[in-house]
Amino acid sequence: xxEASAGATAQRTEAVEAVGGSAIGPGxxxxxxxxxxxxxxxxxxxxxxxxxEDSIGRAWRLSHVNSDFSLCASYPSLLVVxxxxxxxxxxxxxxxxxxxxxxVLTWVHPLNGSALCRSSQPLSxxxxxxxxxxxxxxxxxxxxxxxxxxxxxxxCRSRIAAAGNAMMGKGTESAGHYGVNLVHLDxxxxxxxxxxxxxxxxxxARPHRGPDYLRILEECAWxxxxxxxxxxxxxxxxxxxxxxxxxxxxxxxxxxxxxxxxVLTQLLLDPHYRTxxxxxxxxxxxxxAFGHQCxxxxxxxxxxxxxxxxWSPVILQLLDAxxxxxxxxxxxxxxxxxxxxxxxxxxHAGRAGQFLYSHDKxxxxxxxxxxxxxxxxxxEAHRAAFISPAYSA
Length: 393
Hints:
By secondary structure, the chain is α/β, with parallel strands linked by helices. The chain has 19 helices and 7 strands.
C-alpha cells in the first residue's frame, strides 16, 4: 500500500508540473486576484477610508499581526478582528487555540451586522479557562453590536467528540465561562468521510447496479453526511439572518468542517458568492487562504499520499453540498454544475496552484503565484459553459 501511495503521489506530482504552471513568468500569473483581502473586506464595509465606514466598519479593523505568519502559519497574513482588541492580545490568545488559529471574522451580515467568525478548538482541557480568549469572544460580540447572550459558539463536532478532545487537553468552550450559547452540529470527521467515500466509490465502480444498490448506497452514508453539513449551514444562516446572532464556528483545528460550514453559510446569505466571480472569492478566502489542508486532503503531500490517514474528500463533499443547493434553488446561482465538476477535477488532478499547498505561508515560500496557474482563468475563459441559463440576479 505504501508503494502504491508513493507511486500515485509521484504521478500526481509529475502531472502538476506538466499542467500549465512550470514556466516562470514575470510577476504574478493570472487568476490570483480572486480574493484580495482589502478589496473583499471593503465590500463588506470593513477597512475603507476613514469617514467612509458605517458603524459595522468602525467596529472592526484589519490587523497585520500575522504578516510574517508568526502568529499562525496556517492563517492569512491579513486578519479582521474587533477594533478594540490589540495585537498583543491576539498573540496571547494564539497560545490557547489549537495551531494558533484564533477567532477572527470571515464575513459580516450587511443588514444587521451579525458576524461570522472562525477558529480552531480551545486548549481548554477538562475545565481550563483563559481570560484573554474570553475577552476576545466578548469583544467580537460587542463589535457585532450584540450582548454575549446573542452570540453562539458553533462546534461542528458532536458533544462526545468534543469531550474526547478535552481528555487530550483540547475540547470546547464552557458556555458558563464565556456567557454564550454553545451548539454542536455533529458533522462527521475526515476519517468517517474517507470511509464513506471509499464505500461509495466501490459501489459505483461495479459494472452494473444490482438489486442491492439503494441499500448499499444508504449504508455508505454519503448523502446522510452531506445532509448534516447542509443542516448545519442552514442553522447558522438562519441564526444570523433571522435572529441576528453572531457566530464563532470551529471543529478541531478549524480547517475542514469549519471551512465547509462557513462557505455554505455565506453562499446562503450573500448573493455575491453565488456568482462565478463570487464563488472564486469565497473558495480562495475560506478554503485556500484560511488554511484548509489541501496538500494532505488531496493526496499531494509526499508523506501523506492519496491512501493515507490524512486524505479525505473534504472539497468534494463541499462541492456536492453546493450542487445540492444549486439543484434546489436553480435561479439563485449564476454558475452551473459543470463549474463544480471542473473545480473537482482541477483540484484532484493538480491543475490548480492554490490546491497544491495547505496555507499561504507554504504558497509564498514556493512562489506559487508567480510559477503556477490558478484554477479561475480557465473558468472565465470558457465562461459560457459554466453559466446557468436559469440564473436570475
